[in-house]
Amino acid sequence: CTGNGICKCRVCECFPNFTGSACDCSLDTVPCMATNGQVCNGRGTCECGTCNCTDPKFQGPTCEMCQTCVGVCAEHKDCVQCRAFDKGEKKETCSQECMHFNMTRVESRDKLPQPGQPDPLSHCKEKDVDDCWFYFTYSVNANGEANVHVVE
């Protein structure tokens, strides 16, 4: 009974908060809690302590990652541009408006963090004011700190 119940007559009797024929399914929803306090970000169901995302656009351990949603990349593009390259629309107000994330410079795109890390991660490709592409990732860790990695 995977340590979560007692076997009686070859049938598992599960302890509270566990279910399944082998008591291997946790009813605890804590691992499914998204940063907004909703179970599976309101975009999935918590099954055995794991999110099953029902909205196909969202994925990740708490259904918070959305690679196709407009938002994260466009929202932070101007701040990343002024912090990393000292240019763009927020150049003059950068120190007031754009200090809400930790920034790390990397040498090349293959040095950017890759999917599979514990924090939801967005890969971004945006055009700067000179019509050149620049690349960065945006993630938020368990402490709510935003981290940006940008290609030099």
From TrEMBL:
Gene Ontology BP terms: cell adhesion mediated by integrin; cell migration; cell-cell adhesion; integrin-mediated signaling pathway
GO CC, alphabetical: cell surface; focal adhesion; integrin complex; synapse
Taxonomic lineage of the native organism: Eukaryota, Metazoa, Chordata, Craniata, Vertebrata
InterPro entries in the cross-refs: EGF_extracell, Integrin_bsu, Integrin_bsu_tail, Integrin_bsu_tail_dom_sf, Integrin_I-EGF_CS
UniProt-recorded name of the protein: ITB1 protein
Domain of life: Eukaryota
PANTHER family: INTEGRIN BETA SUBUNIT, INTEGRIN BETA-1
Any Pfam family the entry gives: Integrin_B_tail
Taxonomic source organism: Pelecanoides urinatrix (Common diving petrel)
Domain (Integrin beta subunit tail) ranges: 73-152
Keyword annotations: Disulfide bond, EGF-like domain, Glycoprotein, Membrane, Repeat, Signal, Transmembrane, Transmembrane helix
